[in-house]
Write a structure and sequence with these properties.
Length: 418
Amino acid sequence: MQRVYLCIDLKTFYASVECVERGLDPFSTNLVVADPTRGKGAICLAISPKMKMLGIKNRCRIFEIPPTIKYTIAMPRMKKYIEYSANIYGIYLKYFAKEDIHVYSIDEAFMDATKYLNMYKATPIELAKKIIKDIYNTYGITATAGIGTNMYLAKIALDITAKHTSSNIGYLDEEKYKKELWRHKPLTDFWQIGKGIEKRLNKMGIFNMYDVAHTEPRKLYKEFGVNAEYLIDHSWGRESCTIADIKAYKPKTNSISNSQVLLEDYSFIKARLALKEMVELGSLRLIENNLITDTIHLYIGYSKDAINATGGMKKLINSTNTYSELLKAFLNIYDKTTNQNIPIRRIGISFENVIETENVQLSLFTDQEKIDKEKKLELTICSIKNKLGKNSIIRGMDLEEGATTILRNKLIGGHNGG
């Protein structure tokens, strides 16, 4: 039986939600979702379809919008968008079992519709139309859909083909893909091909998927390594991964990361404080989830990319999740590698090789009583934060100039929670 996948996208999702909440039509309203408190350089997280019609690019900055265009600015409200996304997921559950749904992002999801077509006595396009209509009638959000005989083709049908249909629904099988899109440009329109990969392909004389499909595989493997396999398969419209495969996947190693772009240039000392706060939040997350790490990584990015990023990775003597031990290790990297004379704008930390606490043997060279006491205190902190809110208990450093924890605790996904 040939498989059939749907890929449904909620059109200009954040902007559409803001329009619906205001009783406005996103197709006739100029609206951008952005945080004006971040200045004219703030990125617009979404713009209404009407603004796209005027030639404004999605993810533009506020200052890039022509002054002749009048528009409404909506402060991001991530809680509201998550609420809408969860409710629309509830609509998907009316048609498919959760095992056959893969949520790709807050506004996009895949469904394996193979066994449902006979049940609903509908063609793939009829089923897609029914779901799109249900979403619009229930929440006022316009959706588009891609239909394909594998997940890749469903995604490409959504991203490229659906834009050129009156129904906002695209369909592709392998033969249709080769006939209609083999010579499509630019390559960046295709899933998982960014500007960097496109540039490397162009240097090889490859400008479309037909060129990829007819290039000697050995040359592609030499340039891209094992990733050449995906390029070659996708150039022919092939994709073996299924939603069942995604659900069953378990990574060999896990990591937890956290990063932030500072709202202004920070000095060496102020950025050091922000780092300490980030390590504390990371430690609490590890402890709360009964996890430990044996490797840490630090990233420091500088203002206006004045110099290359610094930082580094450090293997710890013992696996741990305690704040004092992790902080000491991070500050060791920071103090040794960070340029003290150039303003800092980005900080990133990650905990690598994360595993459950029970899987590690105790060391004879650690003060276990001291560690247990610190963990007990931090678990108490987690409990209070979970009951009363993230800012219900804070450290003294969180009140110092340049501290970011109190503000970041109010954000969702790096944006205003609303």
